[in-house]
Amino acid sequence: MAVTISGPADVILEKLRRQFVPFLRNELHFADYATEGAQPKSAGSVSMRWVLFTKITQDETGGLTEGSASDGEVSSLAVSTVTTTVAEYGAWVKITSLADLASTPETLAEYAKGLGEHAARTLDSLLRNVADGTTTTLNAQDTATGTGTMISTDTAIAQDIAVISGRFNQNDCKGFANLGGMYVCIVHGKVEQDIVTDVTTGQLSWSDVNKYVPGIDGQKKIIQGSPGAIYGTMVLRSNNIATATVSTSITGYLNIALADHGLGRSSFEGMTPKGAKAKGPALLSAKSDGRDTSNPLRMFSTLGWKFNSAQAILDVNRLILYRSAV
Q1: Fewest beta carbons within 10 Å, which of 13, 82, 167, 178?
Q2: Beta strand 137-139 with 319-325: parallel, antiparallel or unpaired?
Q3: Are 47 and 310 in contact (CB under 8 A)?
Q4: Residue 321: how many CB atoms within 10 A of its CB?
Q5: Which residues are paired to 308 by β-bridges?
Q6: What is the 3-state secondary structure (H, E, C) of 220-273?
Q7: What does the CA dihedral 192, 193, 197, 201 come to, rounded to 10 degrees?
Q8: What is the rounded CA–CA span in Å between residue 290 and residue 176?
Q9: How would you write the pLDDT of the chain (326 residues) with one tens digit per residue?
Q10: Considering only CA atoms, which of 184, 130, 103, 194 is closest in space to residue 157?
């Protein structure tokens, strides 16, 4: 893809770099709910590691005896680790002149926004693809995980979110601090629509939950049409949700529900590629020096984004693939 630009390339590129990462972070859906890993330095290996504390199940309810050297001693303290390989990702365009494209601040902002959105979707897709591999599944309108066969009428309902919350609660999962301790369920736009338009007397529907709640938390939410929080789980929308054949001839949305420490990713600092001027995913430019036989007249330079990334499932009990009929 060729982009026509002319003018002071270095100055405009620096402006693009400053706008790139904020646009990228604003477009992410899954990354805010994935736990950052550490990148250990070892010769010949580029890996990402997460260290997970194993919960202490021993209760200390007997009190302490004066003079005892064993009272209160925990029998064991353990951690487990998850390790995966870091890989590089990126995309670039040919640039034939820089000032025309950035002749106005609005054009410059849209260009940086477009590259940021593309990089964000790539990162989100990497996390989504890994999350889709969890072995804990829930079909819409089922009352427990791992049971039932999906049929064409098994579209999403509000009761499903209660089942997700219950599953996480029963496994002592923690919610997210940035959501006030709630879990999160990221669904396709059509699934969001199915939840808010479901009207039934057979079980509590989304409208039943909200219509008796006054003010901004009730009727206003119905008018706005966003599911919001249901039974301790925040429902968020992302159209970067995959579909798959769930049962014979039935296609389902692969929505993703998460508790804290269910999914892992690289830190933004750990995503920094070689040659970047700042920490995090980078906007990079390359120019021909005249010796490049593929660009002998210096007719173009290149501009693109690049980052390093690793992602992994940390605990299948904290990550549910919530499947609903298309």
Answers
A1: 178
A2: parallel
A3: yes
A4: 23
A5: 88
A6: HHHHHCCCEEECCEEEEECCCCCEEEEECCEEEEEEEEECCCCEEECCCHHHCC
A7: -40
A8: 53
A9: 444 444 445 566 677 777 788 888 888 999 999 999 988 766 456 888 999 888 887 777 778 888 787 788 877 788 889 999 999 999 987 766 554 445 566 666 677 778 889 999 999 999 999 999 999 999 999 998 887 789 999 999 989 999 999 999 999 999 999 999 999 999 999 999 998 888 765 566 766 666 555 555 545 554 455 678 888 999 999 989 999 999 888 999 999 999 999 999 998 888 888 777 777 888 887 776 667 777 777 677 777 899 999 999 999 999 999 999 99
A10: 194
Six token digits for residue 223? 């008018």
Sole residue written with tokens 């369920």? 185
Q: What tokens were used for 64?
A: 């302490």
Find the radius of gyration of the CA atoms of the chain.
Answer: 25
**At 210, which amino acid appears?**
N
